# Entry
Amino acid sequence: MKTVSKLIKTFCLVISFLMVGTVANATTVVVGDVNGDGDITMSDANMVVNYYLATTKPSDFNKAAGDVNNDGTITMSDANMIVNMFLSGNTGDPANGHEYVDLGISVKWATCNVGADNPWDYGDYFAWGETEPKSNYSWSTYKWCNGSYNTLTKYNADDNKKTLDPDDDAATANWHGAWRIPTYEEQEALRDSCYWEWTTNYNEKGVSGYIVYKVKSNKDMGKKKGKGSSITTEAAYSLSDTHIFLPATGYYDRGLESAGLLGRYWSASLYEIGQADVWHIRFFYSDYVDVVESGRAGGHSVRPVLP
# Structure
């Protein structure tokens, strides 16, 4: 990606005087289509670099379309992501063909895990900051260390990075478009703003996990119904209502553990106290749902989001 970044800068220096970056009369924001012409091209990447270098000032439309990773700022990471969208042919569709639902919170949530074909499939497992599954998840095989938790080579005290770079995001790398792993705050919003219901037979597929519903009443926000437990809701919920399903995929160490009982889904956010740990949604059976920390070398599931 360093090479791509250099290419972008060179490209911009060559054409910056040829392209002022006039924005079309667009009203619908498509992430990556910064100039609003209906296509995602190198022209959009050029505009983002110019904004980053303060050559030109972005409008509100430009900011919304140019902040591809949804971190609140326009940087070279956004330009790199636009270039990847252009080179991979994933232009004009931020979802890149993957399905999602709007749960009424800050981001849209994918209906499947990375590596899954259906909402009830487990999908692949990833160490945090790695973009490919593997058979052994341990510090000895972890990409960003020299064999142990105290020899971290990235996302450590030296670089002070707190959030995954797009290059290291399993959602971005595998699904492209504007997909990414959710942040800690976005996982908290999912936990606190939706209605969670445990099931052992989602959609008659025999798979256990949590159905996460878009609430019909604010009084249902954050409520969780476990197996055999009673809970009072303002409205009735069924699979015909807007929801996602998070299967209890377990986790990978040197083998698959606790599948059908436990769910662990990475966030993009490093744990503030120790760089060896990362925030993630975790639920165990129907007992609890929380956003907690975990060692980043383990194999967890990834449920992508769209800004």
